Please model this.
Amino acid sequence: MEDELAISVRGLRKAYRETVAVAGVDLDVRRGEVFALLGPNGAGKTTTVEILEGYRKRDAGEVSVLGSDPAAPAADWRSRVGIVLQGTGEFDELTVSEVVRHFAGFYADADDPDKVIARVGLADKAKARTHALSGGQKRRLDVALGIVGRPELLFLDEPTTGFDPEARREFWELIRDLAAAGTTILLTTHYLDEAEALADRVGVIADGRLVEVAAPGRLGNRHEALATVSWRTPEGVVESAESATPTALVAELATRFGGEVPGLTVTRPTLEDVYLRMIGHT
Amino acid sequence: MSTTMTPATPATAMPRRRLGPVALGLRQGRLEITQFLRSRESVVFTLGFPVIMIMIFASIFDGEIAPGVRFTQYFVTGMIATGLMTVSFQNLGIWIPIERDRGVLKRYRGTPMPKWAYFAGKVILVVVIGVAETALLLAVSAALFDLELPGTAAKWLTFGWVSALGITACTLCGIAISSLARSSRSGSAVVTPVALVLQFISGVFFVFTQLPSWMQQVAALFPLKWMCQGLRSVFLPDAFGAQEPGGSFELGRVALVLAAWCVIGLLLCLGTFRWTTKRDG
Model:
């Protein structure tokens, strides 16, 4: 039975001995959506995702991924799911082209390996041994192996950790490209800007709990938060006021100062402020 | 929940072109062999080790064990058996933990590849290298140390089945023991002592019947002793069977013990094999 949800999770729990990694997560990801699980290291992101990928057993809860329970999936389930893990295995002695071709052979309806290699930007490295690739290029190869089977749903676990800024921007383009083609994407990240740049919705996870799920601009009701207006008095003292109508306040200040307001700033809480508050570090 | 109907995805509507089991196994084998041949160290050491050993032994023990029968005829059997154990038991016991640690196995588990295809690839690798290495060993021994190759079809047949059963048992045990290693580094720490002790007590480096009898009895529990004994029936004159501990080459028992180890190894593999490391939970 297919519905518009790619992933549906209710009451997911997982503990390792005494340590509770996931403490009751409810989560829905719609088809075609890019969903980011955002949280600090050790928050339970990877545990959650690896349960959804079928790598780990859960202690409790209901999980449905593309209509299957990942712990006992339907026969073709693995061909419909693409996985890009953290720190994945390499085939040092093989070339990029050989590895992608080999993995394409596992799928009934694989994409053209050369096309996939070009798509992840490794066309000029196709004949290179994988041990000669840079960190960013290896990650691109991981993505190539994750998408060569034309998955309906792609998991990306911290895909850009360790990237330089330029490599990250390029990688983001690749993800946007995949999302535009209709692939549902669940990505985990501890980078705020990554979640903001890529995700339709962000789920903030802390201490094994999903604290909030919202569009990046609406996390922590950021769009409704009061703006802080601050300025300098003629005596040189910085004053500030919180306001729901900052424009009116600025106009009033302009009248009071008869033109330019010295040291005027209008700020709203950044995603980082909201996020740090949510994960309990203020 | 929702009852919205969505059209069948293109993936399910397209005709399936999934590879058949034979093709899957063969291409996995080809991948393994390509990787092996490209890592020069493993080629040199795996193929070269038994040859170096036979050169040392043949040079030290340059005599005859009986009129017209050179010592080489005895030691070559131990070297063949050791070589087969190296490519199967040691090779897999060391490499699988490395692949597990690197996440290669985890990556395979994330694809629709059937689990058996991984093992099929390893078996093809082991058999191909085992044959190549044994052929090289025989060629060098025949050319340099006057090794007499088996003279009858029956002996070649015995050579074939003893090697096949032995390498199968060692392959399965190698896969099984790979789960004992907790990290990539500990694979060789687990496997090497086991292999070395077995070589000493199974009559690879010494004449088996000259070992203390308790040692012979311990060795008789494991496959290597029986592989050596089966191979002695191939390379030594039939009359030498009388000098074996059992009074003959006991080929029936060789087959039985090796087959039993195939079963034990298979059960251990099925029961213990891990696709992820312990810390992956």
Confidence is low (pLDDT under 50) at residues 1-15 of chain B. The beta strands of chain B are 64-66, 69-70.
